[in-house]
Amino acid sequence: MEKYEHKYGAEQIQVLEGLEAVRKRPGMYIGSTSVRGLHHMVYEIVDNCVDEALAGYCTEIKIEIEKGNIISVEDNGRGIPVEIHPKTKISTAETVYTVLHAGGKFGGDSGYKVSGGLHGVGASVVNALSDWTEVTIKRDGGLYQMYFEKGKTIRKLERIGDSEGTGTKVRFLADNTIFESLDYEYEVLEKRFREMAFLTKGLKIVVEDKREEPVKKAEFCFEGGLISFVEFLNKNKEKLHKTPIYIEKNGEIPVEIAIQYTSSYNENIYTFVNNINTIEGGTHLEGFKRSLTKVFNDYARNHNILKEKDNNLQGEDIREGITAVVSVKVKEPQFEGQTKTKLGNSEVTGVVQSMVNDALSTFLEENPSIAKSILEKCISASRAREAARKARELVRKKSNLETSTLPGKLADCSSKNPDECEVYIVEGDSAGGSAKQGRDRKFQAILPLWGKMLNVEKARADKIYGNDKLNPVIVAVGAGIGSEFDITKIRYGKVIIMADADVDGAHIRTLLLTFFFRYMRPLIENGNVYLAQPPLYKLSKKGMQDIYCYTDEDLQKAYVDLEEKGIQRDQLALQRYKGLGEMNPEQLWETTMNPESRILIKVTMEDAIKADEIFTLLMGDEVDPRREFIQANAKYVKNLDI
Questions:
Q1: I want to staple 261 with a disulfide (CB 3.0 to 4.6 A). Which of 45, 106, 232, 240 is the partner?
Q2: Are 325 and 258 in contact (CB under 8 A)?
Q3: Is 240 within 8 Å of 312 (Cβ atoms)?
Q4: Does 332 share its domain with 258?
Q5: Which of 160, 165, 8, 3 is nearest to 74 (CA)?
Q6: Cross-strand pairs, 243
Q7: Residues 453, 378, 463, CA angle at the centre, nearest 5°?
Q8: Annotated catalytic residue, options 500, 590, 612, 613
């Protein structure tokens, strides 16, 4: 990677303000004090290493989770400057770790050309929210070290020896009085760092979990960069063209894009700014979408694929089945807050649009067979969109989404306040009957489903409307589907999937979750989708209150507890629930529907890329990857009913 030739010393580290109130209001700086915030601590330190890679000085980053949930992050970059800072009168390294908004990433005379760590709060915030932090620096032939506790300097930076090479190593233990848990999820970190390696061509990232034996370790380095990223995202999909379309331009705002079309009906576009995942998109996404629509329509017109009488293809038609990664490098990016979820720089739109116009137009002219296959899919999508529009209008005419014309099987609740209302989507009429009798009619609605449900992973939107299994769900939720979904119109604050605890129930849950993920994604993003957890077992004995167990572990614990009270196993009657229909209304209320005692699992969008991969794998057309997944995970299956 080309090095950014610029001075990087004490005068490049600018101090904006002191470190204040981080420990009192940690959520302002890292989002939350949950496990998500805990992982964010690691990302902040690794982002600094990646910035060194973007500047052309770092080629390898090593992240370790040590025993005791200690994090170690080491890079072979230039090393943080160690000389005395002219403004703070302490070492520059200590300044970076003790002063909020102190970093080499501000203004035109900074130590970096581009940076993900825009606000300069990463190092100091991690230090403030850690029980202790140890920083070791190799620079200018010396080995330097400093030590902090809860953000306070305990040992100032001192030279402890000589060194070869350069780099920075940071070890820290997050403060357990601030975070809800210190248990890092290795798989979450692994996914994040794989993504980083894709986005930084040639950068080697090693992540290792040493907390337990055997040690978990992953090593990522992708010379293909975004091409490798798109190939990874599409590994279980049928491709319309073998090699992704690659677009790259280095200028004042470097832009890198990889595109590949698949036979699926879903759009997957991921955008990044300085390696930061902008999950809400922004001006770079806007420029890409505009250009995509223009280039394909122009090509179709120029080559008489679209006739004069035909309407232009719409953007959603052209994006059906696309997988794309858009990565831009912006010197002074404008984000919405420290979470960096949406890019606001207006100049980026034109840069991306102009570049894609030129490069994609040239590609289509030079590859007419690929252009034709993509446009055939786009035109097919356009026809399906029109069919979906007609089906949607028909549904609206029939129902108008009014309470009086809600699905006939729906037993609605009396309250009309979505914040307190919830709907149980129940598998089968038998369980639906018990649920209707056992519910609290004020705020709980019941929608029974029966028969085989449509797999939306293999169907377009025109097949969704009017489907006798899914249409009741659409009408009951009341907010539409797809691009027209409006979260403000939902009729229930909780949409709860209640299915049997067997393989058929798991299939129903997967089909419904696939539908919500593809066509009502804001419902998941907003935290409105839940899974009910019915019990697996009931232990009973005359004169004893029934005990419900939700897992095999619960059952064994119940046996032990009862034996301690003098009740032996042979005195107990054990019932294994094969389905919800086996419970009477009182049991169903007590175990699965009573807000005071029930167990609900909230469905979240922690990792949209992983979710897309799993839904494609389990519900898509490719059989071999699904078979491999089942074979690899069969040993983990519990409670499989044959």
A1: 240
A2: yes
A3: no
A4: yes
A5: 165
A6: none
A7: 20
A8: 500
Is 51 an annotated catalytic residue? Answer: no
Indicate if 516 and 543 belong to the same structural domain. no
- CA separation for the pair 52, 168 (Å, rounded): 11
CB atoms within 10 A of CB 566: 7
Please indicate, yes or no, whether residues 190 and 111 belong to a single structural domain of this protein: yes
502 has catalytic annotation: yes
Which residues have CB under 8 Å from 553's CB, separation 6+? none
Cα 390 vs. chain centroid, distance in angstroms?
A: 33
CA diameter of the chain: 86
Alpha-carbon gap, residue 531 to 132, rounded angstroms = 39
535-554 burial code (b ≥16 CB/10 A, e <16): bbbbbeeeeeeebbbbeeeb
Domain membership flag for residue 642: no
Domain residue limits at 577: 537-600
CATH number at residue 546: 3.30.1490.440
User: Is 427 considered catalytic here?
Assistant: yes
| Beta strand pairing call for 422-427 and 529-532 | unpaired
Cα–Cα distance for residue pair 501/432, rounded to 1 Å: 15
- Which of 191, 220, 249 corresponds to the end of one domain? 220
> pTM of the predicted model, to two decimals?
0.72
Q: Which residues contact 428 (CB under 8 A, 6 or more apart)?
A: 448, 449, 450, 500, 579, 580, 581
- What's the CA gap between 96 and 135, in Å, rounded? 11
Domain boundary among 384, 413, 443: 384
Burial group, residue 204, by CB count within 10 angstroms (0-12, 13-18, 19+): middle
Marked catalytic residue, from 504, 552, 553, 641: 504
Question: Encoding tokens for residue 143?
Answer: 């080995």
* Residue 182 maps to a domain: yes
CATH number at residue 269: 3.30.230.10
446: which strand partners? Answer: 411, 424
φ/ψ of 565, rounded to 5, equals -95, 5
Under DSSP, the state recorded for 593 is I
Rounded Cα distance between 366 and 159, Å, is: 60
- Same domain? 117 vs 95: yes
DSSP structure class, residue 343: B
The pLDDT assigned to 635 comes to 41
CB atoms within 10 A of CB 449: 24
List, for residues 412-454, the tens digit of each pLDDT value.
999 999 999 999 999 877 788 889 999 999 999 999 987 777 8
- CA 96 remoteness from chain centre: 30
Half-sphere exposure of 312 (CA within 13 A, CB side): 12
Looking at the structure, tell me whether residues 24 and 167 fall in a common domain.
yes
Answer for the pair 472, 410: CB distance below 8 angstroms, yes or no. yes
- The number of distinct structural domains making up the chain is 4
Closest CA to 26 of 176, 157, 238: 176
> What is the residue type of 378?
C
* Residue 290 covered by a domain: yes
Residue of 247, 231, 243, 236 lying closest to 292 (CA atoms):
247
Q: Calculate ∠ Cα 196-199-205, nearest 5°.
A: 40
Distance CA 46, CA 193 (A): 9
Q: Report residues of the chain scoring pLDDT below 70.
A: 1-8, 11-20, 101-121, 337-340, 392, 394-405, 606-642
Q: Which of 52, 74, 209, 427 is catalytic?
A: 427
State whether 419 and 366 are in the same domain: no
Which one is catalytic: 140, 502, 525, 546?
502
Residue 393 lies in a domain: no
